[in-house]
Amino acid sequence: MVYVMGAQCNGVFAPAVRIVRDEPSTFNRPIIDEGPPFLRTWRRVYVLILVYLAAVIFGLYLFGRAFA
Amino acid sequence: MGSWLLFIVSYGLWRSRGSRNIDSYLLAGKTMPWYAMGLSIMATQAGAISFISTTGQSYTNGMRFVQFYFGLPIAMVIIAATAAPIFHRARVYTAYEYLERRFDAKTRCLVSIVFLIQRGLAAGVALYAPAVVLSVILGWPDRLTTLIMGALMVFYTAVGGIKAVTWADVQQMGVLFVALMVALGAAIWQLPHAVSFHDALAVAGAAGRLTAVDTHFDWTSRYNLWSGLIGGMFLALAYFGTDQSQVQRYLTGRSIGQSRLSLVFMALTKIPMQVFILFTGAMVFSLFTFREPPVLFHPAALAQVRADARFPAIEHRYQEAFETRRATAAHWLALRSASPAAGYQAKRQYQGAEARFEAVRQEAEQLAGKLNGVSGFNDTNFIFLSFVTTYLPAGLVGLIVGVIFSAGMSSISGEINSLATVSVIDIYKRHFVRDASDGHYLMASRLITVFWGAYAIAFASMGANFGALIETVNMVGSLFYGSMLGVFVLAFGVKRANGRGAFCGVLAGETVVFLISRLTGISYLWYNPIGCAATVSAGLLVSVFAPNRNHEVEERPLSIP
After folding, report:
1. Which residues in chain A have Cβ-Cβ distances shorter than 8 Å to B267?
2. Which of B77, B216, B262 should we substitute to test contact with A (largest number of A Cβ atoms within 10 Å)?
3. How many alpha carbons fall within 13 Å on the CB side of residue B121?
């Protein structure tokens, strides 16, 4: 068995929750939502993807024009 | 090749050891790392038929097919920010299970059945398509190749579940990259000594094979920047956000962050991978500009037209057209750097010769179509394999054929696994046997996996018209995805939406898309946004004017804040 630390949620402190580790269902585990390994926030990662997409489209456009 | 297939299956099974309950069988116990999920999602996408047909498509039409994927990174961002955390927090096995919590049982049942119909049909064709191509290349009966692929795939999917599928996909992606690099290297290596890599680019570019972006807007054009960005985004949203075969992959993540990272991985790597595959096809085109390709790439069709009295005249014109194209290309390349004006003139001559060459090849295709009783015969799917079998040494041919076998198995195994998951969780457990033991549902999942595998093999064995089937499945898929996406948009983003509205919305969306497909010439990529908009509008209207008073509204944490 394992105890998960209590956490503050919407201003209310939730008590520690007991979780039975050998329970067959994986759904009893706490859900973890960690940040990205780079750029600190997911929002920045998403912006990076959109900038990357624009650059890829522009690069492909130029590549096609160069050899057309 | 045989060793490789055995390795793939054994490795998948070894990694899936310990899948002894329903959670680990269907969701890998939520233990998968981001790279395994990302590569697995990618492997399902890079199925055998896309591997062999995308290169052929680039050979015949150029790289514009890549625009189909321009909307994908945007869709990945939206799903990573919305659907992935919502499904994780809802603690569901399937995307459709969430619909019952948000709406009601009938909406979940309707969408599950839509998924089973659409994906079941696709699984049969996904098995049939590469099996037929391999049977032609290897000279084996198509039922034998179907059976080999189908039996291996059913075995490791039924025994190992999602873990075996995912880890087999990871291996398959690794070898796929190696095979692609070998093929590209061989295409460039086989060019005549006088033709440099830059010359090959010029030859492909002048023939329009390197044009990847078309900025002109046209509703009826299948691939342009706008249909790719908007239509492609809706298609990717529907596919990755609502199709259980994809949702199940990122639900296996050990955390929301890992699932998000797998989607970010897809967003960053999918377009470069497609560019790489398409570029290989363009280089095969450059090679075949200087080395004569067969009149038809489909070996059986070629043998058939050779026996026809009209063929010698076509073959003669074909050889003349090839020689003219080769000579004008060489002439242009020689003049290009010396004199720009003369080079321009020579380039126009080469482009004219290329158009004449294509026209003669179409004559041969039409003849093959007449002899086979098919109106739109084309042998695009055989171009890449014709190149591989002609220009690669025997060992590498075995590698590529092995990759196609495993790529075929990889796409279908994920589909079969998701079909079994929806059948067990959304139909069997929900409507027939509600409170059985974990072992009972595990056994049911294995048996239903075998059932769907047998169904796919039977469907593939009965397939008669390869081209028509693919067209049918693409059509059927695009008919359903818009309304499936619409019902999830209602679930995630419209708080007033209720079960009655969602159910009616799906039916209305389907009706609108069916009518548009029958009555207009709008390209199929646009069916997805249209179907989604129709479902959301109708669902909202019904929810407002016919509220479902007795139904409890879903708790907040499961919808977008």
Report:
1. 49, 53
2. B77
3. 16
